[in-house]
Amino acid sequence: MGVCTYIVLSLSFHHPFGGYISDRSQHYYILSCFGSIFALVFLLFYIVLPRVFKQYFDNSGWNLTKELSVLLLFYAVCSIANWLCVSYALSPPSDLITRLICILLFSFTFNLVPVIVIILIQAIVYLVEKYEIIRQHPTAEPITVFRCANGKEILLTDILFFYQSGNYQYIHYVSEANIVEEKERRSMKTLLEMMAAYPQFKSCHASYLINTDKIECSVTECGEKKLKLIGYNKKLNVSYKHRHDFDQYLLNNRK
User: Fold this and answer.
1) Which of 170, 223, 237, 239 could cross-link 163 (Cys pair, CB 3.0–4.6 Å)?
2) How far, in Å, CA of 24 to CA of 237, rounded?
């Protein structure tokens, strides 16, 4: 919303496409639509597409090349959308090249730059969170317990698995010969960073981080691989995406 307001106000003052010479009374309204165009394109690239193309946008395989590709494509789509809006709002240009350069510059300044700023802010937040995790759990002093947000401590050897549902995690662990769970508000990404120093905890699915020392056996049912954990009746799925890496780990680390 703030970015859209920024675009609308800037257009009202700067008239980047010569809006002041338009003979259409509604040109202010049409130019103000640039903010809406940006919002729609942003939602398409950063909300819709990651849900449709989950494998491509997966965080574990994300890199600088993919980031730049998405930014360039985002810039191209915004430029085309801006061109169509200008073509409808204003009379035919006398200097096509000048208007094209103007559109490209406008799309960079008012569409691409805000996205770059958002990405930089996210990167800074990520680095700050990572620093806090390292500060709280220094790798030089491995922990033997998992400390919950409420102060409760659970022995790592008692944990069976972590299950992610939305913004919440459910820690399933053994306590007095019973399997109980503890609910926490935390992202899976943060948990993976916290547990990176403990290779026995491995992802078998996007929603599961399991203690491989607790695996009783693995079975295949209806073409899907599942894991049976010691003392836990329900079998956990091993997703196709994680299967090869997970099997390789078990092959190299389990007797």
Assistant:
1) 170
2) 61
Asked if residue 60 has pLDDT above 90, the reply is: no
What are the structural domains, with CATH classification, of the chain? Answer: 2-136 (no CATH), 145-253 (2.40.50.1020)
Contact call for residues 90 and 30 (beta carbons, < 8 A): no
- pLDDT for 128 equals 81
Q: Quick one: pLDDT at residue 162? A: 94
Q: How far apart are CA 220 and CA 12, in angstroms?
A: 63
> What pLDDT is recorded for position 2?
54
- Count other C-beta atoms under 10 Å from residue 56's C-beta: 13
- Given this model, what pLDDT does residue 11 score? 53
- How far apart, in whole angstroms, are the C-alpha atoms of residue 89 and residue 182? 58
Does residue 118 have a pLDDT over 60?
yes
Q: In angstroms, what CA-CA distances link 144 with 149, 163, 197, 202, 234? A: 16, 20, 11, 17, 26
Q: Contact at 8 Å (CB) between 35 and 5? A: yes
**Separation of alpha carbons 51 and 23, rounded Å:** 43
